Amino acid sequence: MAYRSILTVLADAKDADAVLDAAVPFASACGAHLDVLCLGVDRTQTGYYFAGATALMHDETIAQAQAEATEIEAAARRILERSDISWGIDAMVAQSASVSGLVARRARFADLVILPKPYGDGQYADAPVVVEAAMFQGNAPVVVLAEGKPVPVKPRRVVVAWNESAEAMVSIRRALPLLQAAEEVSICIVAPERHSTESSDPGAELSRMLSRHGVSVEVAILAQTLPRVSEVIARHVADLDADLLVMGAYGHSRFREAILGGATRNMLEHARVPVFMAH
Fold first, then answer.
1. How far is CA 28 from its chain centroid?
2. pLDDT tens for residues 103-149?
3. Given CA atoms 160, 199, 166, 213 in this order, what sign does their dihedral have?
4. Crossing angle for the helix pair 55-80 and 16-30, nearest 10 degrees?
5. In this predicted structure, which of 127-141, 228-242, 246-260 has the lowest mean pLDDT?
6. Could you tell me what percentage of the chain is helix, strand and coil, using 3-state DSSP and rounding each to the nearest 5?
């Protein structure tokens, strides 16, 4: 496998078991090194203290963030010390505003980043920022986990969401080792008449390219029979009983930060299998 350096970021102790239970076997199967960044986040914003706030209050918020980082590190170490993989761990404290820069620097040197789903009940506020920073600023491919699902090193079935975009192409290239290892790959094209293709056979060029890499591939042309394209893709994933979805990550710039676009966010909110994304 081409993934030799894998990163995961934990900012909540409750995520440690699920994330590492997925990341450790994947790293082991790839012969990869796993780095774990444990973040305690100080969510107060310097310069916005109310009148009368003291330095002691600031110290307390930093101490709380440090305690969270220590708790996450302890939970992660218990799991990693039972494994047979090469691993490293760092516990750090960061303010909310600096989380994206810190994650991006670490992700830049990783072949793959494995992260928990950033949306859902009880999820911490900075979870989407971590995913966005790894992909948009760190330029790393990301696997977003689905509850209770492993990251398959040799997938049975993979669905590739294809709309001829640059983002989708980048994601496919980054996912190629997994596509080559899969038993079946379905190129999913929803409402091809909306795309810019000049070909009468949508997906043919991508199918040929992947076939030359030894990928067992078929093309599925789907009508948009549901309100959202992401819903059509999700139904196709379920119909095939696929165990991985590969798609491009789309975003737009706001205040110079990359924000996940609506289609990407909707897919992640409702994903039932791991989602491999790149931008």
1. 19
2. 999 999 999 999 999 887 767 778 889 999 999 999 999 999 998 89
3. positive
4. 50
5. 246-260
6. 40, 25, 35
Q: Can you tell me the distance from the alpha carbon of 134 to that of 10, in angstroms, rounded to the nearest whole number?
A: 13
SS3 labels along 140-201: CCEEECCCCCCCCCCCCEEEEECCCCHHHHHHHHHCHHHHHHCCEEEEEEECHHHCCCCCCC
pTM tops 0.85: yes
Amino acid at residue number 236: H
Give the span between the Cα atoms of 194 and 235, in whole angstroms.
20
Q: Where are the beta strands (DSSP E) in the chain?
A: 5-10, 33-42, 86-95, 112-115, 142-144, 157-161, 184-190, 217-222, 244-248, 251-254, 257-260, 275-278
Point out the least confidently predicted range of 109-118, 186-195, 239-248, 269-278: 186-195
Other CB atoms within 10 Å distance of the CB of residue 74: 13
Distance, CA of 125 to CA of 64 (rounded, Å):
16
> How far does CA 95 lie from the centroid of its chain?
22
The H or E element that residue 241 is part of is: none
pLDDT band at 57 (very low <50, low <70, confident <90, very high): low
